[in-house]
Every structure is written in C-alpha cells, then in structure tokens.
Amino acid sequence: MKAFVGADLINGSTDVIQKNHILIVDGANIHSIIPNTDENQDLLESMEEIYNVQGCTILPGLIDCHEHVASKNYELITRWNLDEPASTTSIRTFKVLEDTLQSGYTSIRDAGGLDYGYKLAIEEGIWQGPRLILAISIMSQTGGIGDRISGSGHINSIINNPLLPNAVVDGEEQIQHKLRELVRCGADVIKIATTGGASSRQGLGPRDTSFSRSEVRFIIDESTRLNKKVMCHALGGPGLRVCIEEGVHSIEHGCYLGEDPDLLKIMAESNMFLVPTFTVYDYHKQYSAPHVQERAQLLIDKHRQSFELAMKNDVKIVAGTDAGGFVHGDNARELELLVENGMSPLNAIKAATGVAAECLTMEDTIGSLTVGHKADLLIMKEDPLKNISILRDRNKIKYVFKDGNNIELSKRII
Ligand SMILES: [Zn+2]
Asked: Which residues pair with 168 in a beta bridge?
C-alpha cells in the first residue's frame, strides 16, 4: 500500500475539501482517507511507500470529455492521411496519449478519429495513456460535418483504416447498419452531428440542420438498444432543438442555447450534459480559415451568454477541449476558460472530474477521491482553487497516478 501524507484533498464529485489528510492507495484503488493526526501516524508503519505531499493539493485525475486525440490539424490532406506514412502518424498519436496522461488527464472521451487499437495498447500495458472512451467516427448525414469532401467535390476514395468506418449515413437502414459497425469497431459512445459548426465547410453553418427528427429519434433508440449513449455536436437553430427534445445524452458546443432558453430547462430536467468546448473557439477565432474565424468571432458572445444561462438553470456542465486541430497536451486550458467565463474554480474542477465521470457514466469508479474508486490522482504543488491556471503548468505537477501507478513525468514530447 502507498500513503500520501499531508495534502489537501479536492473530492471532485462533492464540494468537500479535506485539509491535511492521509490518502491510502491499495493496488489500483483508493483504500482509505483519514486525517493526518498524531494518532493516525502508526498506520504509516505498514506502508510500502510513503509520499510526503505536505502543502500539495490532490485532485482526482482529470477528464476531458471531448477530444480528438488522433487529429493533428484542419488541413484536408492531413485529415485524409495523405501527408505522411500511417506508421509515423500513429507514433505521433501515441506520443499525444502519453503526453496527455503526463499532464494529469487520466481519462479522455475521444469524439471521433481514434481507433480501438490505441485503447487496446493502453489496456494491455504496452503503452501509457489515459483510459479511453471512444466514439470511433462522427456519424452525420451526407454533407454534414463528418462528410469531409474536398473543395473540388471529390470524396476520399482511399480507405485509410477499416477500424474507422466512414459514418456518413442517410435514412434508418444506413443508420442501423452503421451503428452496428461502429460498435463492432469498438465504439463506447455514439457521436452524431445535428448542425454544422464553426469549422464545417462554407454553406454549413452553426445553425444549419443535419439529420431529420425521425433520424435522430431512430439513432437514440437504436443506440439505447446497443447500450450506448449519444453525444451530439449541435451549436444552434432547429438541429439543436431536435436533439435536445429527442433526448441525447450530451450536447457538444451548444453555443446558441441562449437563443432557445426553454431548451436549457429540458436539459436540466433530463440530466443532459453540456460540453461547451470554449478552447476550440478560442483557437478558431484567431488562427483558422477566414470563414471559420468569422463564425467563431460571431458566436463568442452568444456562447458566453448561453453558458451563463446554463449555469443559472443548473445544467450539468462538463469540460472538453475539442482539441485535435490545434495543440494537444494543454487540456486544462478549458478549465481556465470556464473560470474566465464565470464558473467558480471548484465547479470548473468538478466539470473535469466528478461531473465529467457522470457524463461518461463512470461515476462509480473515477472522477472522485472516494474510497473504492480508482487511484487516478493529480498531485499539484500548489492549490488550483487559488489559481486555476497552475493546472496548465507542468512545473506545478508533483505526481500523476493512474490506477495506482506512478506515471513518470518526462520532458514534453510533442
Ligand atoms: Zn469535436
């Protein structure tokens, strides 16, 4: 057993902060949490390892609920995997996984583009990375965000990876087949899109609809039968309304929710999660193609208002970066943006721990410093409740543990 002595503990799923405690880990799990008092010192004699973490803060390992680990940028040549050998690309992706774990992120929900082989390698212990919850491919209609055609109108005729099926579908028959194929390929969650986005092609904007109401209903029914939750990319307009009224599990982005405040009530009442992904728009507004920059700049104020209303309505809010077209390994930037947009530091941490675990339906095992939970720990040298930005600073990380294993923190590798 290992003991971590003297740190303050942020629970993650509750508002509880335990000052100066001893956290004991047995194998992969948290064994006990006790005050660091004189009478409890005897217990330490039976420990195999003792970590003096006086003055440090221990959080549950962080969770990003919207990542694209395998994506490198927004260029079509890269998205079609034409610019370098697949083996080189694969090594880059493995490095991203390793680096992301070292940054304190012990679980990632990948929203499309990462195949099951990465998860297998991590589970078998031949590579280090966060535990992975995979969407495999984004399901959208012809012309939707998952339909990556070239500017000349050509579709990608090269089959890159049979484990990442093209999930462009129209109508119930195609949807049913594709859902089964995605699950066969290892999908833990079904990712769909009912609107365009900031980065989608010209002519498919954030309020433009994708999929009919009956298609969305069919996707939810079929996914439920397959025991999978549906995460839905939706920014605004009728497509946002349809997926909320039909009852998806989480809304990704939700930038224009404030224009339809009745939807926030439905979300709160039905425990539907909101993953605002501020980080990606912060990137788009500065660096992306001109039409993408313009869309991002147009939505920034609306996005903040929607977020404020969501908090006011007690919608469950979860941290996700949508990283993939831009820098990896800086997932805690989203927590900083949640705070900049009006969330308390404690709630921002819960959005990346306890509430995020609920979004993954894994709240019984991760996301909280609770006896019996996985010993996924992020141990910071300072208190992130005083300054959330320290979570982005690798020099402020003392230790990262996943499943009770001490993760070696090497120099940045990506
Ligand atoms: Zn995404």
From this structure: 140
